[in-house]
Amino acid sequence: MLSFLNYPNTMYLAVIEALKFNAFPNPKVGAVLVDKDNQIKTMGHHRGKGTNHAEIEIIKNTRIDADDTLFVTLEPCFHTDTSPSCADELLKTNLKNIVVGDVDTDTRTNGKSISKLKNAGLNVSIINNVNNFINPNYNNKNLNNGSITYIGKIAKSNNNKITNDDITDEKYITNNSSLKLTHLLRATVDAILIGKNTLINDNPLLNVRHESLPKIEIEKYVLWGSDDRKIYDVIDRHFDKTFITTFDSTKPNIMNINDLTFQNLEEYLISQKISSLLVEGGNFVHKFFIESSSYDYFYKFTSDDDIKNGLLLDPIINDYLTDKLSLNKEISLKDNSLHIYN
Ligand SMILES: NC(=O)c1ccc[n+]([C@@H]2O[C@H](COP(=O)([O-])OP(=O)(O)OC[C@H]3O[C@@H](n4cnc5c(N)ncnc54)[C@H](OP(=O)(O)O)[C@@H]3O)[C@@H](O)[C@H]2O)c1
To answer: What share of the chain is helix, strand, coil (3-state, %, to 5)?
Structure first.
C-alpha cells in the first residue's frame, strides 16, 4: 500500500487528482502527464459515468510527445462503454511510457489493456495498490460480494499510549506527516466512525483537511451505547453526525439499533449506501470490529515519543494485527512510522 508515496511529484499527484471527484458508481481515477524532465504538462480526472475518463482528459488537454510519461491510477479501460476504450485512444497518440497504479479487476479490462499497450511497444510499469487506496471497495464491488471495506486506524506513542493525559499543549499523538496521510485516507472513504468518548474527549471534526481537496464530504457516525443523558448536551452541537444508539429518541440524528451487533450495524450502513468505512477507534471500538474480524486494512501510526500518562493500547489489537492480518508496508514519516496491515 501507498507505494505511490515513492513518486512524490507524479503518482502522488494523480492520487490527489483522482480524489477530487466522487465518480460513483465508477472508480475515482486520476492521471498526470509529465515531460522528459518530469515537469507536469497536464492532469486529468474522471467525474463519473458518461464523462471523460482521466486519460481522455489528458489527450484532449495537450499534445503527447514520445518522451512524455503518463501516470494513471488505474489500468486504462479496454472496452468501449459510455466512453471509448482508453487503451485504443492512447494508442492513437505518440505515448511511449505509461505508469499504471493497479491492474483493473473489472472483468472487461483485467490486464487486457496492459497487454495491448505492451504489445504495441509501450513501456508499461505497474506500481500496485494505488487504485486499492483510492477506491478501497473497488475489488469487493467487482467480486459482487456486496460487503463494506473496513479500514481501522490508530495513533499511538512509542510506549503504546493512545491518549495523552500529560500536561502538554500538544493535542495530537503523531506528527503533521501522519496527520496529512490520515486526511488523505479520510478522502478515500464514504464514512468515518468513532466512539462516544472520543467525541466528548477529543471533539474531532472528522472532515478532510487537505489543501487540494476542499470539497470532500464524508458521513460521520458515533457509536453511543447506553441511554446516557449526556448525549443531549452533545447532540445539538453535532448535527453533521449520526449517533448510532441502543435507545430511541425523536432527535433526527439518532439512529436506534437496539441490538447493536456488528451484523446489525453493517446492515444499517449498507442501507445508507456506505461501501467503505474508516474506523478511528480506541480500544473499545476497535475490539468491537476485531471480534467480527472485520478489518480489510489497518493503519497504525506510531510516534517516536513516550507519553507518561494515558490509556494503553489494548494488546488484543496488536495480537489481532499480527495473527489475523499481514504487515503489508512500513513507512517512515520523519519521527513517526506507519505500519499498514491487510
Ligand atoms: N489514539 C487514537 O488513535 C485514538 C483513537 C480513538 C480514540 N482514542 C481515545 O481512546 C478513548 C477510547 O475510545 P474507544 O474507541 O475505545 O471508545 P469510546 O470513544 O470510549 O466509546 C466507547 C463507547 O461507545 C459505545 N459503544 C461502542 N460500541 C458499542 C456497541 N457495539 N454497543 C453499544 N455501545 C457501543 C459504548 O457506549 P456506552 O458506554 O454508552 O454503552 C462505549 O462505552 C477515547 O476517549 C479517545 O480519547 C484514541
So the answer is: 30, 25, 50
Band (pLDDT 50/70/90 cuts) for residue 233 is confident
CATH 3.40.430.10 location in the chain? 138-341
CATH 3.40.140.10 maps onto the chain at: 3-134
How does residue 231 score in pLDDT terms, banded at 50, 70 and 90? confident
CATH architecture type of domain 138-341: 3-Layer(aba) Sandwich (3.40)
Pocket test for ligand 1, best of 153, 175, 285, 299 (most atoms within 8 A of CB): 285
- Binned at pLDDT 50, 70 and 90, residue 143 comes out as low
Query: Using 50, 70 and 90 to split pLDDT, how confident is the model at 144?
Result: low
Q: Is 282 in the pocket of ligand 1 (CB under 6 A)?
A: yes
Cell readout for 152 is 481501522
Any alpha helices (H) in 126-230, and if so which ranges? 130-134, 138-142, 176-186, 196-202
Is residue 302 helix, strand or coil?
Answer: strand
The three-class DSSP label of residue 224 is strand
Q: Which fold has domain 3-134?
A: Cytidine Deaminase; domain 2 (3.40.140)
Give one word for 7, left, alpha or beta, with left for phi > 0 and alpha for psi -120 to 50.
beta
- In short, whether 228's Cβ falls inside 6 Å of ligand 1 is yes
Ligand 1 contact, 152 CB (< 6 A): no
Quick check: 6 pLDDT over 70? no
Distances (CA, A) of 65 to 45, 62, 100, 114, 116: 20, 9, 18, 20, 20
Q: What is the mean pLDDT of residues 32-56?
A: 94
pLDDT value of position 163: 94
